[in-house]
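ugh ok fine here u go
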Amino acid sequence: MAAPLFPARRVHRALLRAGAYGAWQGGTGGPEIGLTLPVDDLPTLERVLATLGSTRATLIIPAAQAAAWTDALHRATRAGHEVAGAGPPTPLGALDIAVGQPVQSWDATTLNLSHRDLRTLRDRGVNPLPVPGEQAQPGRTLRIQPEDLTTTLADLKARGYRPLPVRDLPGLRRATLRDLLVYTYGQTVEANFTQAHHVIDLTSRPDAVMRVAPLPDAPAPLPLPRNTPTAELHLDSARLVSLATRSQLGTYRAYQRSLKDVGVALRERPELAAAQAVFAVTLFYGPLEQAGFTLLDLPPARARLYGLGFRVLRLVHGTVRPPSVKAPKMAWMPREEFVRRFG
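structure:
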């Protein structure tokens, strides 16, 4: 028999991303990140607690073993950690007793839970944890294996992330169908665009919002010979929207810091060594103009095409009000000037 088109695990995770059984969704796009650690035995739990130190996290504990870990779990909750359950939730009250407080979240990403188990958890007010991301993203969750905790924790803090238990993420809410659609868009349309155009990701920091792609030519209306290599800026729309909901001033500062990331990339990335100009086509050209970019009007047909694309992005990422400007513009700066200002 042929393998199913949609494997069970993929369907299961898609349901969780859409909010099935009351699944949580990560919060707003600040430096906070929900840290989750699956712990399978008591010695590992002891090592994890020692390694975390003052950093708080969500510890995923197998419910069937929790009764034998009472002392360590009580120490964990007194230190401010969140305890989430894993495995079949029977008996659920035993985990609450072992932890010393009601458990509010459960790891539902594995397939060892039946629909009846998940309904039981939901009816008891216990929600599935958010499906963890493959890499760190602002306001989202990241699952770390205990053996990787030391290096990953140091890396997250060096990049400006602030690890927290999932329950403490600002803006934590129930997932909806829109969250699944946004995720699907990112994994298909945006991922394919990134691969096809060789886009370089410069979003290592939680407040970084720019990516850059090398181009072999200078598209109109750049006042350069057509065969001039250039570099095109791309905004991380999801991050920009999340930052804007928190602070307009913070968004502007993130914009400025991200331009410096591009300046470093121009100096250090061999793919960008030949680029003679940096440009962006965007509705959010105000900060670029303030930063010294020259604005150019697009040909009407291209402006309409880009405008349609930006409207789709606003719909996908949930912006409530469009920018006050109606038509995108091209903002550009010669390489030497860009490196002088931001490199």
